[in-house]
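Tokens as discussed.
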């Protein structure tokens, strides 16, 4: 994409990468520091999690629409992800539970699953049918986004907290990074690493 979203203290700064000399846009966020930002594939919807466990939702396709807030008062949230079409919001909790909500009204679309080790990263497959979750134990699980069932063993390669997940646009590869300093490229059809893990970064 051409826009870079950067979380800060009670705001998100949006830079146009094709006009970096222009002043950036800002979005107000309540509840402290922005810890997680999730975007739909076309950028029409966004969600942000703050350090005080407030989630702010934006629907940019609706003229003059005000952002919506949801204050989480139960199990602390670690990770968010929006489906490519922006219809679904995945929420990963410190307890290891995983929930998928309807973006419009935050109603659950399926069962609350878990517990596993605390969820630390989430990413939707480009077709929206698979959700990848990474945990503090280093395991990566692939879920059916509708039924929240898994079909097979986890992807094991990290020895520590999975910090980020990203699918390539074609959907055949999954990139994972962790606090163990590893960057791993996974071949999804075989569920194997492509080559060995790359070393050297700090989470």
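Sequence:
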């Amino acid at each position: 994409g051409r826009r870079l979203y950067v979380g800060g203290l009670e705001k998100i700064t949006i830079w146009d990468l094709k006009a970096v000399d222009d002043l950036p846009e800002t979005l107000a966020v309540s509840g402290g520091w922005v810890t997680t930002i999730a975007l739909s594939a076309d950028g029409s919807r966004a969600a942000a999690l703050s350090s005080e466990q407030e989630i702010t939702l934006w629907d940019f396709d609706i003229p003059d629409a005000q952002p919506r807030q949801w204050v989480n008062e139960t199990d602390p949230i670690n990770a968010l992800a929006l489906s490519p079409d922006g219809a679904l919001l995945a929420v990963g909790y410190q307890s290891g539970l995983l929930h998928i909500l309807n973006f419009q009204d935050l109603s659950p679309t399926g069962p609350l699953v878990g517990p596993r080790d605390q969820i630390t990263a989430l990413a939707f497959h480009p077709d929206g049918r698979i959700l990848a979750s990474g945990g503090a134990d280093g395991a990566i699980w692939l879920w059916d986004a509708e039924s929240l069932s898994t079909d097979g063993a986890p992807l094991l390669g990290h020895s520590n907290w999975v910090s980020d997940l990203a699918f390539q646009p074609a959907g055949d590869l999954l990139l994972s990074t962790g606090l163990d300093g590893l960057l791993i490229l996974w071949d999804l059809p075989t569920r194997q690493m492509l080559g060995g893990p790359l070393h050297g970064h700090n989470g």
